[in-house]
Structure formats: C-alpha cells, structure tokens
Amino acid sequence: MRRYTFAMTNGGPRDTPIQSQDRRTFRFGRRASRKDCRGPAHETARSTSIDALSSSSLQVDVGEAFGFVFRSRNWFGRLAVGALCLLFFWVLLIPLFILLGYFIETARTISRGGRELPPWTDIGKKLSVGFLLAVVLFIWNLPGSILSSGDGVTCAGSGAAAACHYAPGPLAPLGGLYSLLLGLLTAAIWSQFLQGGFGAAFDFRAIFRRATLQPGMTVLVWLLAIVAGIIGGLGVILIVIGLLFTLPYAFAVIANLYGQFAQRTTSAAGESSAAPAT
User: Fold this and answer.
1) Is the pTM above the cut of 0.85?
2) What is the rounded distance in angstroms from the CA atom of residue 200 to the CA atom of residue 206?
3) Average pLDDT over all residues of the chain
4) For residues 46 and 245, which has the higher predicted lDDT (pLDDT)?
5) Which of 23, 121, 128, 186 lies at 20 to 30 Å from 200 by C-alpha?
6) CB 96, CB 89: distance < 8 Å
C-alpha cells in the first residue's frame, strides 16, 4: 500500500517542501527552455537593431545643414555681415580671415549641439582663428600644388594668332589624386582643428580614424560640400551681386556639415579631441 503524506493548511492539503521545490524547478526549466529556443534569433535581431541605430546616429542631417540658417535669429543680418567681408576682401585679406573665423565658430557651435548661426562677436578672435585655419589648409594643399605644377604656359605664333597652352608636369596625375584624397579628408581636418587647434589638424592618425569611422558619411559630407559650393556660385545669375549672399549661405551650410561630422566622429579621434579648442 502506498502512503501519501499531506501537510494540512486551512483545512486543505499542500505540497511538501520537496514537491514544491520540484514544481519550481520544472517552471524554471520551462522558462529557460523558452529563452534558449529564442536565444540565437532574438540576439541576432537585437544586435541588428543596435547596429542600425548606431549607423543612423553616424549620419549627417542633410535637412538641418541646408535649413538651419533660416531658423537662426536675425539670419539675414548675420549673412549680410558675411557679405560685407566678401565685398572688402581686398583689404589685406583680413575680412576673409574674419569670415573664415566666423564659420569656424559656426561649425564649433553645431558640434556642441547648437542649431543656429552664432552672433558676430569677438572679431579679433575670429581673425586669429581664421588665419590659423587658413595656414593649416595652405599647408595641406601645398603638396598637391607642387605635384600638379607643370612646365608652364607656352605660346606659339605672335599677335592675335598666338596660341597658348598649359603643359602639365609628369606628376600631375598624382597631384590630382592627392587633391581628391584631401577633399575627402577636409571634414576630418576641420574636426581636428575645431577640437584640438593647430597641432591637432596635423594628427594624421586621428584624421584617418575620423575619415574611416563611417566612410559613407565621409563621402556624403564631401559631396554635399560640393553641392553647397555650386549653390554659392548661383549668385552669378543675379548680376554677381547675388554672390555676396549665396556664398555666405554656402559657407554656413559647409560649416554645419563639418560641425555635424566633428560631433559624430569625436570618439574615433581618441586623445586628440580630449581638450577641445575654445
């Protein structure tokens, strides 16, 4: 004869501790088996969604770049000051350095989360920072200019019948390739300058890390900068005067693109971006 042992509680039987433990083990085993069954597919889907979110966070906002100017306070007046800088560029190039310094500040503002054009303040600082970046870009462009230099212009004939042509040097193709590479690296060079100053703009490892963090974004920023330049040139249609406004707008768009690029590639720059320039 089998013997059953019951513990009475409130007038009814309940499981012994051993039976309760067995039931808990069974329920835990069912939950574990369900988790194991969905594990690989679930983890794959989860990692895919994380990768998608990470990828989207590394893309520039094109609409923001081309539209932020018109959402800025007093945007017309701020562009008008840029137009004056272009109009008086012949004064020892000083207005151009000031304008470049202004768009450096614009890019830095965007990289720190700002969403509009900065005010025209501290002109002296804009002049000095703009001059430094101009020197940086000149140094970076120097190898391409040397490689692309040719044998000069030669002319045949005399008077109105003279025919002149430019003879490129044997290293001109290398100069063209260098210029293309420099165009792709310009956003990274700007980013380094924004966050580390003059010296950081020549940190080759950090520059290449930024440029290769998301190659698609690097190419997109390069192409959009070209598009912005084309828009800037459309001012010629308005009897050249339009250039005084379309060019500052184009520079603002490019500054926004470079600011977004700097923000999204800070992690790739490493220690060089640990002490941002002010």
Assistant:
1) no
2) 8
3) 80
4) 245
5) 121
6) yes
Q: What percentage of the chain carries pLDDT values higher than 70?
A: 69
Task: Read off the amino acid at residue 51.
Answer: D
Residue length, the chain? 278
Confidence grade of residue 44 (pLDDT, cut at 50, 70, 90): very low
The dihedral built from the CA positions of residue 189, 190, 192 and 193, taken in this order, carries a sign that is positive
Which residues in 258-273 are b (16+ Cβ under 10 Å) and which e? Answer: bbbbbbbbbebbeebb
Rounded to whole angstroms, the Cα distance separating 10 from 19 reads: 19
Residue where the block lists tokens 């959009």 = 224
Answer yes or no: are the C-beta atoms of 203 and 268 closer than 8 Å: no
Question: Which pLDDT value is given to residue 57?
Answer: 59
